[in-house]
Every structure is written in structure tokens, then in C-alpha cells.
Amino acid sequence: MINYLALGDSLSVGVGAPAPQYGFVPRYISMTRKELKKYISCENMGVSGATSENVLDMVTKSDPVQVLIRQSDLITISVGGNDMKNAALQFLRSKNKSVLSTALKRFNCNFDNIIDTIHCLKRYNRKNYILRGINLYNPFPNTPGTEAWVRRFNQHIQSFEGKNIGIANVYPIFVGREKELLSSDKFHPNGKGYYLMAQSLYELGYYPLY
What we know:
Elements: E1 2-8, H1 10-13, H2 24-36, E2 40-44, H3 52-61, H4 63-71, E3 74-78, H5 81-94, H6 98-121, E4 130-134, H7 146-158, E5 165-168, H8 171-174, H9 178-181, H10 191-202
């Protein structure tokens, strides 16, 4: 059996999918089960609207979540989209670029601490585990300047790739295909978008877990 923990925001919840089973988490479970031929026990702790600060609070202050982290063989994290969205909306109102730079610095610090906390909680666990992140797509392709900031967020996320950490690079998948892959709210993926996200996670493989 594989213990899978999904952490993050509305992407982990599957907001925008036509039904819950069409989010990336259920689809990734299905792909993983077929690949590893093992039962997947999943705890989905995704929270709609969660920022990196909210996810950090969850992993550092929630005893039940810390127990799940210690027990998990496979962890996925979707975070950063709301940090970026909130900053972009504030920038559009104020035209103050420091809003974006401040949001990026805060996200970088929070993301560092999320990963460090997970590693610390797993420190004495002799079992192999893998951590999978998802970088950001740009839901505001027609807003000047947003592409550059999404790339900066992603640069930091990608920097964590290592022995047991893989980052699904979904950014290029969505470029130029926003109408095809985003739901009617024009922010969250639709069923096809979530499928491609799950496929990107699957293509990272499962080493050193299996």
C-alpha cells in the first residue's frame, strides 16, 4: 500500500473540474496505482484559496497533518497560485510593482519552510518517500508583465528538484492553450487541464520510492 498525502490549494481540491474525480489528485492516484500495482490510500488536505502561508501553517501547526506527513510515502504540493493571483490583483489596482516583489519574497520564504518542515518530519523515517510539486501556469496571459512574474515564482519552485523531489513543469502546457485548458472561471483548470497536470506528475516517475 502507498500512503499518499495531497497538500495545497484549490488545485489539489480540483476546483474547476466537471466532477471531483476529474481533478489531478484522483487521476494521479489512478495512474500511480496502474504503474505500481499497489493500493493507494489518499488523504487530500487541499484547501481552496490557500496561500503558501496557509500551507506553511498547516504543516507546522497542525498535529494531524504532521502525523500524515510522517506516514506518507508520496506527497504532492500545489501552492503559489493564490500568492500570485492576490498580488496581481493588488498590482492592477495600485500599479505598484513592489506588491509583486514582496509577494515573491514571501512565497520563496514560505515554500522553503514548507519543504524544510516536511524533510524534518521525515528525518527519522527509514522508508523512502517522494515529494512532488507543481509549478505555476499563467491564468492572466493577457495582462502585461504577469508572465515574467510567473517565471520568477517557477524558478524558485524548480530549484528544489533533487533526489526525491520532482517538480511537474505544467507552465508550458498551458501557454497559448488557456481557452482549451481552463474552466469557465478562467483561473482553474478544466478536466483536460487537470489530466495534463496528473500526466506531468506521472512522468516524473517514482524513484526512489520504487
